[in-house]
Design goal:
By secondary structure, the chain is α/β, with parallel strands linked by helices. Helix content is 40%, strand content 22%.
């Protein structure tokens, strides 16, 4: 797979606005966050992820895109308003379905991380953040470097 960001919608939601998809190559890492308002572990992890996001962006280039599993737009919007990152718009059901099929989250919350070239780094980022806190970033750098070496062989 060349660049995973090609599978995102051309337009993403930022707050209440729909904007063109950013250039993901400007982020050292970016993530797809599969979550839903009806899921208690999701609500708990969203707070932890928000703290990580706010802190890491003080010194690193990082973005997250929410891939909702909410059952209706009202619940999605109410939940998403608590998040500072981007989202696949509610209306983009095909993109949400496609990303879910590709990433195959067994449970939610589920966080997949990609590097600036759109290469897969890990889908264990939820556990990484829970276990390592801010040091999860260093762990992702190590994984990304190993994957780069492997691709160069």
């Amino acid at each position: 797979m060349k660049n995973f960001s090609q599978f995102l919608s051309e337009n993403l939601q930022e707050g209440n606005e729909i904007k063109p998809k950013p250039d993901f190559s400007k982020y050292q890492f970016w993530g797809l966050y599969f979550s839903a308002s009806w899921c208690p572990p999701c609500r708990q992890f969203t707070g932890m992820l928000k703290n990580f996001y706010d802190e890491i962006r003080k010194s690193k280039t990082f973005e997250i895109v929410l891939v909702t599993h909410d059952e209706n737009e009202r619940d999605f919007m109410k939940y998403y308003q608590k998040m500072p990152w981007l989202a696949i718009p509610w209306s983009e059901k095909m993109a949400i379905s496609y990303l879910t099929r590709i990433c195959k989250p067994q449970t939610i919350p589920h966080l997949c991380i990609f590097d600036q070239d759109g290469n897969y780094v890990t889908c264990g980022a939820r556990d990484d953040i829970a276990m390592y806190g801010m040091k999860a970033w260093n762990h992702w750098e190590d994984i990304a470097e190993e994957r780069r070496k492997y691709r160069q062989k």
